[in-house]
Amino acid sequence: MYWYIAFFIIYFGSMIGVAWYYFYKIKTYEDYMISSWSTGFWKITGTIISTNAGAAVFIGWVGLGFTVGMSGFFKFALVAYIASLTLVILFAKPLRRQQLFTLADLFTSRFGGKTGMIPSILSAFIYSVPTLGLQLIGMSTVFNITLGWNQTTGLLVGTVLILIFSILGGLPATIVTDAVQSILIILGLVILTITVVLHVGGLTELINTTSWEFLSPVSVDGLSDTLLYALSVGPFYLVWQSTWQRIFAAKDEKTALKAGITGHLIVMVISICPFIIGVSARQFVDLTMNQDLVFSYVTNELLPTPIAAVIFVALLAALMTGATSFNLQGASNLTRDMYQVMINPKATNKQLLLVSRLTVALITVLGTGAAFFITNINDAYRWALMVNGVLLVFPFLAIMFWSRVTKTGVITSMIASLIFILAYPFTGLPFDQALAGYVFSFVSLITVSLLTKHDATEVPKPAMKYKLEDFR
């Protein structure tokens, strides 16, 4: 236990020290939320790695590998990073050119008025809150395994640490610590993967003693199940605001593109490690164990305490930076798209900075509340991805490519799709919820746009080719 205490004190002390340093450097809202659009290649690459390696990777994906095998990699991780790379390759330059803060800003730039309020609310409450809760669950699990704390104590301590770090340091502190922690995260995953595989006799022995259903890229329920699962998670990563924030924070379009590709290729490769750990764990872990506990159990059981402490610090690094990315994401939505647009359009930079920090606290507290109700990390995360993807992917693509899309079409599509996707499980219809949701979103967006005219506040230009603010 003393090793854990020592490592945790050093880690959290360093994190808070960095945040305190940036507290005195941050002078404007732009500094706090988007690092003043000035971040370089290695910092962007590092923060992409760290942000993508949160509770889902260390805990959720190890658990998924433990329960369904390697098909989890193909139907979740692989499609997530293919979608992320698609976003970066196709859209990093045109999005960076817009020089925005949030996804909702793009909607406001294209349609004017308060159109960005809907994606802002979605991003803040239906994505940021539950996913921040997942990070807190991960932190409480680590504290339980290493220090013996109960869940409530772990959640409260994690909340306090996240609040201190994110309120003080904002995105600049998150990006800097992410860049350093990305090395620790990669090292931790690789060490644990090698250790677990050697524990079961090596890779050849693992393959020989594992049934095909846990090695196959297709789940035991067939190809259609694998593809439909992928549909429920993959498209969301086109509209994941954490990636958008990194694109916006880059110092120029070239940096946004190169760093985005590099970071996501690295995490695509290392994301296979959690699934190998999960499959290997089936050889020696009680198969009735809660899947969200497998990572921490394996680490604590197989590694000497000093090495296990390094792994747990790597996990806490991923969870801390993931949590701060998510509360900053939600806070930027509430500050930029709700406070500045709806409440105080003439807000000064000082007011925006204050509201940013207050909304960071709000999102963090709500995330803590959500953590008490989450029973399965993968299921909760998948639901959040599906809902946000269904509502936002086609409106986003329309803004980028289709000048004929109208404000009425987008607003109607998002509201109707939200009602549809929430009500669908109660209809008893046999079609997959995600597939039905995407079809409904597409059809409603196209139909209503063709039946309505452009509003006077719109800029009917495709954002792929034009900087929309230039036409206002």
From TrEMBL:
Residue ranges of the TM segments: 6-24, 44-66, 72-92, 124-149, 155-176, 183-202, 222-240, 261-285, 305-331, 352-374, 380-402, 409-427, 433-451
CDD domains: SLC5sbd
Keyword vocabulary terms for this entry: Cell membrane, Ion transport, Membrane, Sodium, Sodium transport, Symport, Transmembrane, Transmembrane helix, Transport
Pfam families: SSF (PF00474)
Protein name as annotated: Sodium:solute symporter
InterPro entries attached to this UniProt entry: Na/Glc_symporter_sf (IPR038377), Na/solute_symporter (IPR001734), Sodium:Solute_Symporter (IPR050277)
Coiled-coil positions: none
Catalytic activity as recorded in UniProt: L-proline(in) + Na(+)(in) = L-proline(out) + Na(+)(out)
Principal place of residence: membrane
Topology relative to the membrane: Multi-pass membrane protein
Source species taxonomy: Bacteria, Bacillati, Bacillota, Bacilli, Bacillales
PROSITE patterns with a match to the protein in the record: NA_SOLUT_SYMP_3
Family the entry assigns: Belongs to the sodium:solute symporter (SSF) (TC 2.A.21) family.
